[in-house]
Design brief:
alpha/beta, Rossmann fold, two-stranded antiparallel ribbon, 9 strands
Length: 239
């Protein structure tokens, strides 16, 4: 059944910033493509950033993030992708935007909006301490609310993806995976996609290191007795 769920899907991945999609579900995106499905990616914002307590790449431009995003999308061979805001004023301040504006972006205003793409599957960021991720999740979750098919395209699968940073979270916001995708044959591609984000990948002991990304995939795999997996929380699964 799990294999059949990945066939003939139109999957829309909504990421707060370029790299979140790769950390969270690059293996699943690669597997969807291998199964003949379509994959579309929205990254909401990028901009110039002074990183806190990082010596290398202490200052990263929005243009660098955009170029890294393009490289990752080409690695994953997605059908289309969009960076909505390449704007320093907006980047890292998504939580200050009116929620209604973000909802409208995902529903109808973005070039790859739900109304235009008509996805059968939507992948959102998990709730976390990151205020931008929280805002994008809330807006995306609202945009995926059930509606009549003649009013709005109906997403049969709505998920939140894993992220190595969410281990730091409040108990009531803990990530409890209940949906796994076997990415044993797609782990190498996931690591290649993450590697495109040279300004974001950290040294080996950091949660955002390539080593940790591989270990997390292998831990998730062991939770369901496969070599490597990506984990998700299901918000809706209609079969």
């Amino acid at each position: 059944m799990a294999e059949s769920l990945l066939k003939r899907q139109r999957c829309l991945v909504i990421a707060p910033h370029p790299d979140d999609e790769a950390y969270g579900c690059a293996g699943t995106m690669d597997k969807l493509k291998a199964e003949g499905s379509e994959v579309f990616v929205i990254a909401v914002s990028a901009g110039d950033v002074h990183h806190y307590n990082i010596e290398k790449y202490s200052f990263v431009t929005g243009q660098t993030r955009h170029e890294e995003f393009e490289a990752a999308m080409k690695t994953l061979q997605v059908d289309d992708y969009e960076l909505i805001y390449n704007d320093t004023e907006i980047h890292l301040k998504l939580d200050a935007m009116p929620l209604k504006e973000l909802i409208s972006l995902f529903e109808k205003d973005a070039r790859l909006s739900i109304d235009r793409i008509k996805p059968t599957m939507v992948i959102l960021p998990a709730v976390s301490y990151n205020q931008d991720h929280e805002a994008v999740f809330r807006a995306g979750f609202t945009a995926c609310r059930p509606s009549l098919p003649e009013v709005k395209s109906f997403q049969k699968i709505v998920l939140s993806c894993d992220n190595p940073a969410i281990s730091w979270s409040l108990e009531r916001e803990k990530f409890h995976p209940n949906f796994y995708v076997d990415i044993t044959d797609h782990l190498e591609t996931k690591l290649k996609a993450v590697s495109c984000y040279k300004s974001q990948v950290r040294s080996r002991l950091h949660h955002a290191s390539l080593e940790n990304i591989e270990w997390l995939a292998r831990v998730r795999g062991r939770e369901v007795s496969v070599e490597a997996a990506e984990a998700f929380m299901v918000h809706r699964l209609l079969v």
